[in-house]
Amino acid sequence: MTAPWRTLRGRLALASLVGLLIASLVFAALGVQLVRSQTVASDRDELKTTAIGLAKLISQDAVADIQTKSSYKPTPERIATYASLVGTGTQFTYEGANLDPDLLGTPSPLQRRAITQVDNAVLDRDGVQQFDYTIPDTGVKAIAVAASITFPEGRVGAVIVIRERAELGSVWRRFANRVLIAAGIGLGVALLVTVLFSRRALRPLKRLEAAAREVGRGDLETRVAITGTEEIDALASAFNTMVRELQHRETLTRDFLMRVTHDLRTPLTAIRGHTQALTDGVVPPEAIPRSLHAIEDESSRLEALVTDLLDLAKLEARRFRLDLDNVDGNSLVDRAFQAYTGEATQRNLTYEHELTPLPALFTDSARVRQIIGNLIDNAFRWAPDGGTVRVSAHPRAGGGAVIVVADNGPGISADRQMEIFEPFRSENTPDGQHGSGLGLAISRQLARALGGDLRVESRLGAGSRFILELPAEARQTALER
């Protein structure tokens, strides 16, 4: 059984889980911090409201007592009323020269420290003071609000409402627990949705896998449906294109095999016929040289076809060796040109060459001549009788040489200019000839193996120009292993 993390679905779920976990932790941390800060701010506002309300109540009680009794001294009942107003978990005290705090009992350390923090200047200006403080001996932290107690004559003291930070902590922790629980629930739901979504999202890949298996079994009619998801559709489109190309190549291969079978059978039939005639003694003595010459021509034709097939197989298998040496560029092109002068004369072609002095090349001279020969042969096949084939060469910018073979044949349409360099691509020439479709394919691969390139420039009705670019120095490439 495959481990979950080795599957794409498992990795997606794991990645989502990690992302959601991090997001949940960040959310929880920020949420807890927000709740804490909001709780403190809310408590400050609550203490402020309580302090102001208590200060007004004490001020009213004090003024009423002074008017009726000429003095103010809070009773235990009033102290109990004041304590009930501030609520549990909150302390209060007050200070002032005209007030008697004795009935509050002995001030606690929290209260004594709070009294020392009161700033009369702030109270005289604002009427309210908010402050935090810590008791040095115990380290207890608290927040407090002081509000002015006023008589008609002015401020006579302040009431101080106090709450320990520990009391605040118990409040915000309750909220924090709820935040953490909500984050956990959200994480679980999100993970479930992620698993379901990833399963649904990966269904097209399962279909693609099944289609690939069908193609592997030889069913080239298989296609993958477009789902509407951009990335999956791109993959499906590439898969369908691949299968169509395989179909196309299979058709080309089948057609090629039929052509090659015919091309192989024709010279073999001719060789067998002449050989049988010679063996049976039916060939007159004066015709024996002609039969032998025909056998030699057909054998050469057969050898050339087999050699092309072997070269193509080696190039595609990347097991092709280059025989590199220093060569004279002009002499190399001239020898390739001169090899076809006799055929040009027979065809009544205008056969010209123009050579600008070329630099010395470090390359495989036999393979370069093979390329040029293939290009000239192709030009002869497509040029009409009495037409023109021109070979030219000039130095290449940056070193090397550029060799051009041009003809005035029918030209090549733009949509076919890349196809002609594919193996087994061949069409009937104007005089009905049909090649194997290997020459140009081998020539381009050889040019690239030498570090150069081969391209075509052509328009319908305007002839074609095949341009071979060669570097000054070729190197053994990955074609040799």
> Structural class, judged by helices and strands?
alpha+beta
Helical residue percent band? 55-70%
Tell me the radius of gyration.
Answer: 50 Å
- Helix tally equals 12
Beta percentage is 15-25%
Distance between the termini: 39 Å
Which residues form runs of ≥5 with pLDDT under 50?
Answer: none
Which shape, going by the Cα principal axes?
rod-shaped
Summed over residues and divided by their number, the pLDDT gives a mean of 78
Largest sheet: 5 strands, mixed
Q: Widest sheet: strand order?
A: 6-8-9-11-10
Q: Which H/E pattern describes the elements?
A: HHEHHEEEHHHHEHHEEHEEHEE
Number of DSSP-assigned strands: 11
Keywords:
single chain, rod-shaped, five-stranded mixed beta sheet, 16% strand, alpha+beta, 481 residues, 11 strands
In summary, what is this structure?
This protein is of the alpha+beta class and 481 residues long. 55% of the residues lie in helices and 16% in strands. It has a five-stranded mixed beta sheet with strand order 6-8-9-11-10. The protein has a four-stranded antiparallel beta sheet with strand order 1-4-3-2.
Can you lay out the helices and strands and say which pair or pack?
Blueprint: H1 8-69, H2 76-86, E1 90-95, H3 109-117, H4 120-126, E2 128-134, E3 141-151, E4 154-164, H5 165-201, H6 203-216, H7 230-280, H8 288-316, E5 325-328, H9 329-338, H10 341-346, E6 350-355, E7 360-363, H11 365-382, E8 388-395, E9 401-407, H12 439-449, E10 453-458, E11 464-470
Parallel strand pairs: 6-8
Antiparallel strand pairs: 1-4, 2-3, 3-4, 5-7, 8-9, 9-11, 10-11
Helix pairs in contact: 1-5, 6-7, 7-8, 8-12, 9-11, 11-12
